[in-house]
């Protein structure tokens, strides 16, 4: 098969893990190619996510690199076997690949934790609120593209219905009060947020202005926990598009931010009361 032109973040991640495994014990690409019965370009393509790897070859790769971590290898083997088409593949060519990769990340995660300071997290947005967020992008999106992105975002939310998994959202008061679309849209959004907070597995934690500061206050981050910690991923919003972080040192930093944020944020029940207070502040505004 010819190399993939645009490997997904998940395909790239498998390649990253193959390269880490090889480099950890100092095996050269040339030696690995000889062991697998292939050539150097093929090894490079596998490590870049541009070519897949069979389960048999992955086992040989692991043995050659002295990797005997059973749960980790099982998780990598599962990645090699997953060749299905998913709903998000229907959006390829219509929206940027990075946005599609978020849906793929969510689908395969064991649990999800998000921290937002400027707007409500995507999996919890109403259609009207999502449309208002996309309307604020610069440069402006054509109407049809904004509509496609809104539809994609709403379809992503089925992950909380069809495949429920632990989902924790830390939302700063600034995001809870930011009036994308105006007060009517925000009221509808906050009411929807209260309903979502009662879903099984969903926890919403508010971070009030009254806190002096909190870890990670300068950025929004999305932690997707994999089947083993080595396969955790953090997604960060940038003006150029989503960025996916895999380096262990960076992952550890974001795990610490999560732990520290948990310690200072309001609990689920307190957060619901806090959101109701903001709703009262919005009463009568139009």
Automatic annotation (TrEMBL):
Residues of the HTH cro/C1-type domain = 18-73
Q: Which Pfam families match?
A: DUF5753 (PF19054), HTH_31 (PF13560)
Q: Which domain of life is it from?
A: Bacteria
GO terms of molecular function: DNA binding
Q: Which Gene3D superfamilies match?
A: lambda repressor-like DNA-binding domains (1.10.260.40)
Q: Which InterPro entries match?
A: Cro/C1-type_HTH, DUF5753, Lambda_DNA-bd_dom_sf
Protein name, UniProt field? Helix-turn-helix transcriptional regulator
Q: Which organism is the protein's source? A: Streptomyces kaniharaensis
Show the taxonomic lineage: Bacteria, Bacillati, Actinomycetota, Actinomycetes, Kitasatosporales
């Amino acid at each position: 098969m010819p190399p993939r032109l645009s490997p997904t973040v998940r395909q790239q991640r498998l390649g990253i893990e193959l390269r880490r495994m090889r480099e950890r014990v100092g095996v050269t690409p040339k030696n690995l190619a000889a062991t697998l019965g292939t050539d150097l370009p093929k090894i490079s393509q596998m490590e870049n996510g541009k070519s897949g790897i069979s389960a048999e070859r992955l086992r040989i790769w692991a043995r050659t690199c002295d990797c005997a971590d059973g749960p980790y290898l099982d998780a990598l083997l599962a990645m090699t076997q997953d060749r299905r088409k998913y709903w998000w593949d229907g959006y390829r060519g219509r929206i940027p690949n990075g946005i599609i990769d978020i849906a793929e990340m969510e689908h395969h995660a064991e649990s999800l934790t998000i921290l937002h300071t400027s707007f409500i997290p995507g999996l919890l947005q109403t259609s009207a609120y999502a449309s208002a967020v996309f309307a604020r992008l610069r440069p402006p999106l054509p109407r049809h593209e904004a509509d496609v992105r809104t539809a994609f975002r709403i379809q992503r939310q089925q992950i909380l219905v069809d495949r429920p998994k632990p989902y924790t959202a830390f939302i700063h008061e600034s995001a809870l009060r930011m009036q994308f679309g105006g007060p009517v849209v925000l009221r509808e959004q906050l009411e929807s947020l209260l309903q979502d907070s009662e879903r099984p597995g969903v926890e919403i934690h508010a971070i009030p202005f009254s806190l002096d500061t909190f870890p990670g206050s300068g950025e929004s981050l999305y932690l997707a926990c994999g089947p083993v910690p080595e396969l955790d991923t953090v997604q960060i919003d940038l003006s150029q598009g989503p960025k996916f972080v895999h380096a262990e040192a960076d992952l550890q930093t974001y795990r610490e931010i999560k732990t520290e944020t948990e310690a200072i944020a309001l609990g689920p029940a307190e957060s619901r009361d806090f959101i109701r207070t903001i709703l009262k502040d919005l009463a009568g505004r139009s």
